[in-house]
Structures are given as structure tokens and as C-alpha cells.
């Protein structure tokens, strides 16, 4: 009874199972490393895009504030009906926002 158990757990079989398990783990780790590298690249791209979006958003807020000031100044001029007053200079749209606006 003990002989078949010894044959089942012989050093050669244990070594073969270890080599097979190591091969499987190596293949799986290689695949995981490729996936991790791809995901890290995607995260870096998203972070760069987020920074660009935040910068454009800040510029848009500044433009909106300038336009609100401009509209307020025009309203005051129209209320007073002063014919010889020139309207204030319009704020320029930043080059980064020309496509978005």
C-alpha cells in the first residue's frame, strides 16, 4: 500500500509538478505585467488630459467673468442713453478656447 503512495509522491513527479506550476505562474505574471503597463499608460494619459481640461476650464471661467463685466458695462451705458460714450473693449477669447467657444 505504501509503495504506490511513494511512487505518486516521488521526487521526480514533485519536481515535474513544480516546474509546471512555475511555468504557469511565469506565463500568468508576464501577462499581468503587460496589462499593468498598459493600464499605467492609460492612467498617465488620463491625468495629462485632466490637467489640460482643468486649465481650459479656468480660462473659460476668466472669459465668462470678463464677458459678464462687459455686459454690465453695456447695460449701464444703455440705461443712461449717453450717445457720445464708446462701449468698452471686448475681451479677447484665449487661443486655447477658440474651438470650444
Structural features, described:
This protein is 76% helix and 0% strand. The chain is rod-shaped and about 115 Å long. The chain has one domain. With 101 residues, it is mostly helical.
Explain the layout of strands and helices:
Blueprint (H helix, E strand, L loop, with lengths): L1 H7 L2 H70 L21
- Counted by DSSP, the helix tally is 2
Low-confidence stretches: none
Helical/strand content category: mainly alpha
Gross geometry: rod-shaped
User: pLDDT average, as an integer?
Assistant: 84
Order of helices and strands: HH
Main pleated sheet: none
Distance between the termini: 85 Å
Radius of gyration: 35 Å
Give the helix proportion (percent range): over 70%
β-sheet strand percentage: under 5%
Number of domains: 1
Report the count of strand segments. 0
Supply database-style keywords.
101 residues, mainly alpha, 2 helices, 76% helix, 0% strand
Summarize the structure in short.
The chain has helices at residues 2-8, 11-80.
